[in-house]
From TrEMBL:
<dbReference type="GO" id="GO:0000811">
    <property type="term" value="C:GINS complex"/>
</dbReference>
<dbReference type="InterPro" id="IPR056784">
    <property type="entry name" value="PSF2_N"/>
</dbReference>
<comment type="similarity">
    <text>Belongs to the GINS2/PSF2 family.</text>
</comment>
<keyword id="KW-0235">DNA replication</keyword>
<feature type="domain" description="DNA replication complex GINS protein PSF2 N-terminal">
    <location>
        <begin position="12"/>
        <end position="71"/>
    </location>
</feature>
<comment type="subunit">
    <text>Component of the GINS complex.</text>
</comment>
<keyword id="KW-0539">Nucleus</keyword>
<dbReference type="Pfam" id="PF05916">
    <property type="entry name" value="Sld5"/>
</dbReference>
<dbReference type="GO" id="GO:0000727">
    <property type="term" value="P:double-strand break repair via break-induced replication"/>
</dbReference>
<dbReference type="Pfam" id="PF25005">
    <property type="entry name" value="PSF2_N"/>
</dbReference>
<dbReference type="InterPro" id="IPR021151">
    <property type="entry name" value="GINS_A"/>
</dbReference>
<dbReference type="GO" id="GO:0006260">
    <property type="term" value="P:DNA replication"/>
</dbReference>
<dbReference type="GO" id="GO:0007059">
    <property type="term" value="P:chromosome segregation"/>
</dbReference>
<feature type="domain" description="GINS subunit">
    <location>
        <begin position="75"/>
        <end position="174"/>
    </location>
</feature>
<keyword id="KW-0159">Chromosome partition</keyword>
<dbReference type="InterPro" id="IPR007257">
    <property type="entry name" value="GINS_Psf2"/>
</dbReference>
<protein>
    <recommendedName>
        <fullName>DNA replication complex GINS protein PSF2</fullName>
    </recommendedName>
</protein>
Length: 189
């Protein structure tokens, strides 16, 4: 969701992708490599065709160099996403999705579409899920109550998108519902 500069109080989508790239994913290495140490930890050794886990940023780097295949997360398939889309369009609550599903899916669709089954269908389903969830978010914000707001199962990207509106809306509601200070009688002397 594009926001005017005055409302950009949250992190940007690329920054959220950077945070999500710390998630561990499984890869199938195509080359052998010894254990490699980084600030975030040591990964490897890589021995084809044995699967191993590493951060998404490293897996993406190896994939771009054609040194591995990325094993998609269990939730990144047509059947799972179709089920979640059905839930999103038929139930009033948000369906349960991984917290960083939008960012991880975008990275994998950009970097490793050949490792995914039916990437175009996945893109379409993710877009439809996102639109259905955004509609629910807008509806939830329209019912903003200064005492309680329940939007369970929101993901990181969605929380980040509604944060500026929510903060401003709650500030206005608090101001409107605040009791005015008592008026002191004027002294007539």
């Amino acid at each position: 969701m594009a926001l005017p500069p005055s409302l950009r109080t949250s992190v940007t989508p690329p920054e959220l992708e950077l945070v999500a790239s710390e998630q561990l994913v499984e890869i199938i290495p195509l080359v052998s490599m010894e254990r490699t140490a980084f600030i975030s930890g040591a990964y490897g050794p890589l021995r084809p065709p044995t699967k191993c886990k590493m951060p998404l940023w490293m897996a993406s780097n190896l994939k771009l160099k054609k040194k591995c295949h990325i094993v998609p997360p269990t939730w990144l398939n047509v059947e799972f996403l179709q089920d979640r889309l059905t839930q999103e369009t038929t139930l009033p609550s948000f369906s349960e999705m991984p917290f960083r599903f939008a960012e991880i899916a975008k990275i994998l669709l950009d970097v490793a579409p050949d490792d995914l089954q039916n990437p175009e269908k996945l893109r379409t389903l993710l877009k439809d899920i996102r639109e259905a969830r955004q509609a629910k978010s807008r509806e939830g914000l329209s019912k903003l109550d200064p005492n309680e707001l329940i939007l369970q199962n929101l993901c990181a990207m969605e929380i980040n998108e509604i944060r500026p509106f929510f903060v401003r809306g709650m500030a206005v509601l608090t101001q409107l519902t605040r009791e005015p200070p008592p008026v002191e009688p004027m002294d007539e002397t």
